[in-house]
């Protein structure tokens, strides 16, 4: 009997997959990616909302606003996104695979509209800004899933609520509007309507159908105070659209909560379709009375403060260029709006996102975009998940999409524009609930088998759509 060492061939030596050594810098790289994408998301939200200090309270005075801080925030996204592409090139490219056909047609309509644009430079700059502000939130959503995205939106909502209240209290001459809109609070925003609508979105993001925990926690207390502050901001902004958005958002969440017990996707879709038809019929009957009551409560008339006069002048323009429009972002330029819209006061926007999109990229591109949004809404409603948390997040995403579409009826730039709620809308549109898994390379597809032979290893499927 020999007690000497026993030698085996090198090919027979291997580690089990569960105990293989991890890359030395794997944890540090993941932390860096998390911080980078979080920073990109926050910068995109801050730039889109336009929150800054020193905006004039009375726009009739012609006070100038320094655009440099907003430009720096926008341009900073280029190196940040490029740096992330270097850190994770395979995953970065995987995000762009499988772009929906309808979105591809919209992108094509935007590019083609450049060639007939009334202002080619404005169209190119507008498309670049829209792309940058959409890419940041989309990268985070596809990297970390919808639950983490909603948590990040909630953190920004809490910051926005406290920041606007404190700013208005410290600098009321900047935070409260003057002139014809005297008394309406705008906080850090450029206009009071933008603050009211963003506060409505923040309220829906923060609200929960569960009762607060009896155990006092600072995070829960902070969130509860932020919810109350968002309601205060909605009221003091004197924005009737924001009030309607809150009501519809709450109704959407409650309705989807009641349908959680219906596990069949087709049944859920038919129920939603029936409810939409019922609500649409009832709403068409009661619209005039409700609209008059809401308008009078905020000191306005049924013509929505002259918006109908603007729409009457721009609707005929759509039929002059119905295919590719007047150029992307063209009707976001104040001088072009004033050229085609003539009223007794200065008009800076069309106050309707749908008309703006039709004028910018044409009717086909507009129809494709609306069809994409409606398809996403019905898919999210019909989706059934075992996790209660996923169902709650999905209901909030449906509510947020609906709120943006409702706000777009009376305000310009709510969609396909580098302002306002665009990053929020982009972050809730994907159907995937889990992070995107990039396709494995050829080396990763092959693993050591018994006897040193290589056998194919199937990649793990990505969850979601």
From TrEMBL:
The chain crosses the membrane at residues 32-52, 72-87, 94-116, 122-140, 152-170, 220-236, 271-295, 354-378, 398-422. Residues 225-370 form the O-antigen ligase-related domain. It is found in: Membrane. Coiled coil: none annotated. InterPro entries: O-antigen_ligase-rel_domated, WaaL-like. Residues 436-465 are annotated as: Disordered. It comes from the Bacteria. Keywords: Ligase, Membrane, Transmembrane, Transmembrane helix. The keyword Ligase applies. The keyword Thylakoid does not apply. It is a multi-pass membrane protein. GO terms for molecular function: ligase activity. This is O-antigen ligase family protein. It comes from Rhizobium bangladeshense.
